[in-house]
# Entry
Amino acid sequence: MKKITFEQWKKDYEDIPYIKQNYKKIHEEHGIPKECINGGDEYLWLDTSGEVSQKTTICVRVFKHGGFYEMTLNSKYYLLLGNEDWLEDSPDLIEKELYEWCNGEIFNMKEN
# Structure
């Protein structure tokens, strides 16, 4: 099996708006649990004042070779991996972290 490089992985993705019409595609076809999305079942996540939270996920970037992260209403990028999460102004760090996790976990696995 050919090794998937960061550049190959990074360029092959689909941005899917996080709206109810896309729930089936996101949650069933791509297998991303609702609990893993910031806001979960709620399309418009409300903060304590009843206003729409700026951290509400508006889009999910799903990579063909594995992995996903979220884009929020306030134009930030959110990634949750295990017990760690990142909320960044640019996707650079998030994409590096996600690739490093996927590399060996989902693809480029060593054969016994």
Remarks:
- The chain is about 20% helix and 25% strand.
- Strands lie at 13-17, 57-63, 68-72, 77-81, 84-88.
